[in-house]
Amino acid sequence: MNSIGKKAYLLGAVGVLLIVGIFSYLIIGNNTQEKALETSEIPSQPITKTDKLWVISDVHYLSDKLHDQGEQFQFIKKTSAGKDLDYPRERLEALLWQIEKERPKGLIVSGDLTLNGEKLSAEELAGYFKRAEELGTQVYVIPGNHDISDGWARRYKGDQMERTDQILPGEFADIFADMGYDEAFSRDDDSLSYAVRPFNDVMLVMIDTNKYINDVSGSSPQTSGKLRTKTYEWLETIFAQAKKEKAMVIPVMHHNLTDHNSQVNKGFTIDQAGNVQDFLFKHQMNLVLTGHIHTQDIASIVKGNQTIYDIATGSFATLSNPIGEISIEDKVLTYQKKQLLMDDWAQATDQKDPQLLDYSGYSQKLFNDDGIGMAYRQMYEEGWYDEKTADLVADFIGQMNVRYFDGEDYYDQEEMAAIEADEGYQLLKKQPDSFLLAYVESILIDQDVDDTHVEIPIGY
To answer: Do 387 and 434 fall within a single domain?
Structure first.
C-alpha cells in the first residue's frame, strides 16, 4: 500500500490533491466584505462559568437522497475508513436532543461538514443547525477541505456514480449565512474567514485554511491547507482589536497547527506550520481548535515560556461521536471531551433498530473492523502475512486504533505492561521495518497531555 493509502485507511480522510486556486472578489462578492461592528451588535453580557460552547468536527454528512443503498454506495461505505454513513440523520437528531437537554450557548463546527462537498448535503445540514439555533444554541461553522469545489461530489445509484451539484465558495457563506457569517463583525475579503463575538469578552476567529478553486472542480479535494497572505493581514487587525478590548480569543480552523502523529501528518498539519505557529505566538494565542485528522487529540507547542494547545476534536462520524465542551471561568478555558448520547436518544425516542439502541457498540465495532482490515492489507503488501498469526496482529492493531482515535490512548503503567505482553504486539515487533509497528509506536509515545481534557489560561 502506498503512503496515501495508509493515511486513508487510518484517518478517514478520503481526499488528496486539488488544483489550488485563488478567490476572486467577484465570485465571493459582497458576502465576504468586511463589515463594521455596530455598537448595538456587541453582546452586553460576559461569559459566565455556566455558559458552554460545544465543538464538533468532520461531520461528513451525506444526504440519504444521494444514494439508494446500492452497490456503489456499499463500496463507498467499505472504503470510508470507519465512518458511519448509515445513520447521519439519526446522529444529528441525537445531537439536537442532547442540545435541548443541556442547552449550550454555541456550537462550533470546525470543517468537513459534508462527505464530499455535495450542495444538497450542505443544505440539509443547515436545516439541522437552524433547529439547533431555534433551541437557543448559536451555530458557527467554517469549511473543511471536503466542503468547497469538491470534484468528488457524487450521487450513488445502483452500481453507478453520478456527479451532483458542488458547493462553490460564495454558496457556502449563503447556505450557512445564519451559522456565523451574518453574525460576523468582520470578514476576510480573501477567504471564508470571519470573526464573531458570542459574548462581549469572547471572540471566535473562524479561519478558512482550505485550498480550492472558485469554480466547479473535476478533481479530488486537496488534503493540505494554508494560510493566505491577505488572511494574515486580516488576522493582524482582528487580534489587535481583541487585545485593545481585552477580549479572550478562540481561533478555529480545519487543519492542524502541529503534527498529531509522527507517522501520519502530511496534509493534515497546515503548510508552513512553523510560520503559522510563530504568528500565533506573536499575538499571544494560547490555543487553536482544529479537526481534519479525525483523532481526538491534544498536542502542545512550546516556545520560551509560551504554550499553544492544538485541540483536535475527533470526527463526529466515528466512534463515540465526540463533542468538545468549552467553559471559561476566571480567564481559564477548560476543554472536556463528551460523548454523543446516541444510545440514550434511541431509547428515549423509542427507536427499534438494534444498531441504534447499542450505537456505541456498533460504531466501535465498525471502526475496529476497519482497523483490522487495514492491518491484514498492510501485512499482505509488506510480504509477511501468515494465516497462523495474522489474526493476533490484526486484532491488536484494531484495538490500538480505536483507543487512539477516540482519545483514550493515555496509558498508565499497568496498561503499558499489558500492551507489551500482548501476543499480537510481540509478533509485530519481529517486523522492525513494518509501517504497522511504526504506527503503533507513534501512538505509544503520544503521552504529552490527556487528549480528552485540558485547562488553558486565556486572554490578555
So the answer is: yes
